[in-house]
Structures are given as C-alpha cells and as structure tokens.
Amino acid sequence: MNAPLPAEVLKQHLIDPEICIRCNTCEETCPIKAITHDSNNYVVDPDICNGCMACVPPCPTGAIDNWRLMVRAEAYGVQEQLGWEELPGEKALPETAAALPADDVPAATDLAAPAPFSAPGATVPPWSAAHPYVNLYTHKTPMTATVVGNYRVTGVDTESDIHHIVLDFGELPFPVLEGQSIGILPPGLDAQGRPHHARQYSLASPRDGERAGYNNLSLTVKRVTEDHAGAAAHGVCSNYLCDLAKNDKVQVIGPFGHTFLMPNHPRANLIMICTGTGSAPMRAMTERYRRRIDTGENGRLLLFFGARTERELPYFGPLMKLPRDFIDINLALSRETGQPKRYVQDLIRERAASVRELLADCNTCIYVCGLKGMEVGVLDALRDVTVQGGQDWSILHDALRREGRLHFETY
Q1: 165: which residues sit within 8 A by CB, 6+ positions away?
Q2: Contact, 50 vs 32, CB < 8 A?
Q3: Is 168:221 a contact under the CB 8 Å cutoff?
Q4: What is the distance between the alpha carbons of residues 345 and 374, in angstroms, rounded to a whole number?
Q5: Is 369 noted as a catalytic residue in this protein?
Q6: What is the torsion angle, in degrees rounded to the nearest 10, for the CA atoms of residue 326, residue 330, residue 333 and residue 338?
Q7: In Å, what is the CA distance from 401 to each residue of 124, 186, 355, 380, 405?
Q8: pLDDT digit string (tens) for 350-408?
Q9: CA-to-CA distance for 314 and 226, rounded, in angstroms?
Q10: Reported confidence tier of residue 227, pLDDT bands at 50, 70, 90
Q11: Where are the alpha helices (DSSP H) in 99-217?
Q12: CA-closest candidate to residue 167, choices 42, 282, 251, 286
C-alpha cells in the first residue's frame, strides 16, 4: 500500500511545453475541465486537477505525463505555467515533507478517486501493432525535410483545395507507422511575436514511404480559408504547406501517436470511416495492404468515405481504380447534384449486415477520422447496427475499446 502524501505536499500535474503540439486532446478529454490554454501553452490548474489520469493515454506525444512534488502552497499557478517555454526542474522539499520514503510516493492514480470518464475509442493500440517511435525530433531539434511533390487532389473547380504533399528526409532516419502524425513548424511569428507552434498532420503514406523503399512520407492538407462556422479565417500552416514548391525545405517534428495504429497480424480486417482530409491515415493503411496484396496476409477492408461531392473527395481517381475484391468502398456525398444527402452514418446502417459480420470477428479494427462532430453519429450507427443483430452495444463497445479495436482521431 502506498502511504498518502503529507497534506502540505502536492504531486502537481504539468504539461511539457517543449513537447506539446497544442492538439487540444487533453483539454477535450479532461472530465473536470482542469486543463486550459492560451496562444502559448496548455496548462493544468492545480486547484482543479484530481489526478484522474483521463488525459494521459490519449496524448499523442507524452507531453501531458509530467509531475512535480511540490509544497502545496508553492504550486505553479495557471498564469505562471502559461508563460513557460520549458518545464522547471525539480524543487527540493522541506525536510518535514521530504521525509516520506521514496517507495511511498504514490502514482498519480493514488491522488484521488478518478472522475467518471468514458472515451469513445480505445486508448491502447491493437495488440499486434508494430512498436512506434515518438518524439524523435522536437521544437528545439526539428528535422529538415525537402518537398519532392505537391499535388492538388480535388477538382480545381471546387472550393475544397486539398493537396498531397511529399516530404523527403534524405539520409536521416524518420521511422513512422500508418496512423501516426508529424508536426510542421510554419515559418514566421505569431501575433505575440513568438515562433509559431507546430501544426499536426496525419500521415497519408505507409511505413515504407510514399514511394516504397524511400525515406519519404506524404501528407493530406486542406487549405484553410474559413472556420467551421464559415467565417473567413487564414490557416497559417495549411496555406504555407499548400503553397510549397518542389525543393523547398520544411521543419518537421515528431513522429507522434502510439494508439491509432493498424494491426500487424495476418488477415486483420479494417473498417475505415472518414471525411475529407481524415482520409489520410486510411490511405496509409490501404496502401500498406495494397503493397502486400499477393501475400495472402490481408483481411477485409470496408471503407466509408464522406465528402460534399465526388470532385471534393481527395484521391477519388486512384481510389476508384482499386480492385473491388480488395476494398469495399462506400461513398457518402452530402451535396451531389441530383442525389439525396447521405452521410457516413447513413451508409453504415445501409451496410448493416457487412458491418455486423466484421464486428463479430475479433480480428476487426475500426478507425474513424475527420471532424469532431462525426463521433456521435458514427457511434449511434454502430450501436443501431449491433442492436438490430440482437447484441448489447455497451458490452461490444467496452470490448472494442479495451482490446484496442475502436479508434477515433477527430479534430
């Protein structure tokens, strides 16, 4: 049994600003709203945090998993943390507080009873996923990549300007897996005169490169000119990336991500659900399967892909050329002329029999990537499909999460 900390001592939860990529996952995850941010940092309020650990597993970089034993009265406040460029070192505790034996220092889970929390997806990878490398390159030590390709992958007559960008790393190692992401450091300064923080982008290429055997990777980037509400907004990094030319240099950090990984065992099935640039990790996984199509190792691939029109679907042409017996493609188009509006959750219900068949197989993993708002619709559709088959969705949902077989990457 761990002895309790002295009342005057706090095991303070801190976020490392040098590793954090400001993806907002921790703030969205925290069940008691203990995490906040400004334009500089994400921080934990010591007066609210109860050490429930809900925010730790989803963090793609591990920046969230930092702790300091502090005299409670001297805990770092929110305003102080917002101004940090790096974490402070350990402080020596007063002798009365430091007398606690090292073995008695509790884990974060001993600080208080966890608050109720239920993530929609798994916080562990599939059991057979390959081991990922993370945080090889940081804000202080970024990698320089060279642009070797920049191609628009949506119709030129559409508002959706999405680019496929290929980055080459030369002789320097940058090992990645399908489902991981990297950070791009856009040049210039923000409104406060500080260098821009990294923006995170999912990989669109498999582990052996955009071109097999080459030390490169690809990204799927949408030029941001408005926010989700339709108001004018200039995406600093997306516009920078979409305007890059061949041989331009780019500062890269990462890689990130240790849970949204594809299974590595033979005949694993994938249900992939995405919209827009959420297709990036699905493309990476599909391409990994395509390259081993003749090995007999592949399971089934079932794709639900949503966009407003066909011409706004990134990779529409190459996707349509894939063999039908290799991947089962279902397109949900919400604004196609002459067609009724359809969303990915509608297609999941329409293909209920196929979805149920795959869900019944313990070799099936589900991946969802796109806008945050799609989470509820997808979960509702999966629940409806399961209930129609006479099963208890809550039991299946818990199993999928526990076994690392249901993953969400939404923004």
Answers
A1: 147, 149, 150, 151, 218, 219, 220, 221, 241, 242, 244
A2: yes
A3: no
A4: 8
A5: yes
A6: 100
A7: 8, 35, 17, 16, 6
A8: 999 999 999 999 999 999 999 888 999 999 999 999 999 999 999 999 999 999 999 99
A9: 19
A10: confident
A11: none
A12: 251
Q: What is the DSSP string of 235-293?
A: -HHHHHHHT--TT-EEEEEEEE-SSS----STT-EEEEEEEGGGHHHHHHHHHHHHHTT
Q: Which residue is it, tokens 């990549």?
A: 145
How many CA atoms, within 13 angstroms, populate the side-chain half-sphere of residue 53? 11
32-46, 105-119, 147-161: least confidently modelled range: 105-119
Query: 23, 55, 137, 202: which is the annotated catalytic residue?
Result: 202
Q: Is the pLDDT of residue 91 over 90?
A: no
pLDDT at 94 over 90: no
At 47, the amino acid letter reads: D
Q: Which residues contact 44 (CB under 8 A, 6 or more apart)?
A: 12, 13, 14, 15, 34, 35, 81
202 is catalytic: yes
Q: What residue type is 22 in one-letter code?
A: R
Question: Is 367 part of the annotated catalytic residue set?
Answer: no
Is residue 93 within 8 Å of 69, Cβ to Cβ? Answer: yes
Cβ-proximal residues to 317 (8 Å cutoff; 6+ apart), any chain: none
What's the distance, CA 8 to chain centroid?
38
Distance CA(281)–CA(270), nearest Å, equals: 12
Residue appearing with tokens 């350990």: 90
Cα 380-32-10 angle, rounded to 5 deg: 145
Asked if 406 and 275 count as a contact pair (C-beta separation under 8 A), the reply is no
First-last CA distance in the chain: 40
Instruction: Decide if 339 contacts 242 (C-beta within 8 A).
Output: no
Mark whether 362 is an active-site residue.
no
Choose, from 201, 289, 315, 367, the residue flagged as catalytic: 201
Q: Which residue type, as a one-letter code, is found at position 340?
A: P
SS3 per residue for 360-381: CCCCEEEEEEECCCHHHHHHHH
The Cα–Cα gap between 290 and 140 comes to: 37
Catalytic residue check, 315? no
